[in-house]
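fyi for ur records
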Amino acid sequence: MTSMSKKELISEVKARYLQASKMEKGKILDEFCANTGFHRKYAIKVLAAGFDNNNRIAKVGRKARQKLYGHQVMAVVLKIWELLDFPCGQRLKPALPEIYMVLVRCREMAFSQELQVSLERISAKTLDRRLTRERALRHLKRNRGLTHRGNLLKSAIPIRITDWDTTKLGFMEIDTVAHNGGDPSGEFIFTLDVTEIFSGWSEQYAVMGKGETGVLRATKKIREDLPFDLVGIDGDNGGEIINYQMLKYCTQEKLVYTRSRPDRKNDNAYVEQKNHTHVRQLVGYHRYDTPEQLEMLNDLYRHEYRLFMNFFRPVMKIKSKEKINNSLCKKNYDIAQSPYQRLLGCNQLSQTRKDELTRLYLSLNPIQLKRGINRKIAKLKATLR
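which gave:
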């Protein structure tokens, strides 16, 4: 019998029990205990006139939950949460112990055994609950786009109509983000955003306008800095991605070259997500249209920013999807890891490259990287008119 059924039974039996004689109460108790499994003494207590069965919580509320993690723990959690750009609890929890030890190694924090145990023990749900107020103060959700259809060349480039095989390394989604401040007139800067499917490794490069030559040149420069071999490129139907120069380059380099379906933004879900979390949250929706701003953006993208996002910021991957009542979709995620951690666990990457990544990782201080990012962003926004 469920708890709700027991409450309903108590409500029905109680009125009859209070009006019954002593002998009848004994029979009612026998029947009630047999149905609910209650001890006889407890049954007498809950059926008594002064016992409030259903309305105590509604009247006085639940007993306050005792906080297991005090100010000292939450101060460290808050600092790491801000450092990683406010991830959800599921992404934050796996990163807490590692980032804490990195900050200790870089002498940004003092080591405490009790604090380390608390950071390993705290759950994702607790993190979400304790950070609710802080999250509300920082929440910002905006979405704008400026993608135009490509030319007739689309017929020569196959459409990727199935889900990605996320176990293969080297396939990247590519897209551009416009920085026009809501005014599409004239020439302004675009950010070329590239995301690898298996690891979540992302790269950004700023170009003036979105001409074919500039986007292709930025793609080549990004490829030079990748810690793995590029296997394939997938883009939307914009003319800056779907063009003869890009097709020729992919053919010569023997790269898989595909595109998404028209007007189906979710086909490029990996890079579309990064457009917001890795570009919009960083530089906002302002207009950038000067050579000085272009140089400053690339100085940010190609140095501190790519190192911080790929080596320290955790990402999650969907393991499975389950339909519920033919309407809701329940998604199961794996444990959040940084792109660097996913590459270390990948058997498709050579040990030599893994060793190079590890040496670079051990030389990095996330606090210094974050300070450099904030300093360059402030300098960039100071150029706004």
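The CA atoms of residues 155 and 307 lie 38 Å apart. thats all i got for now
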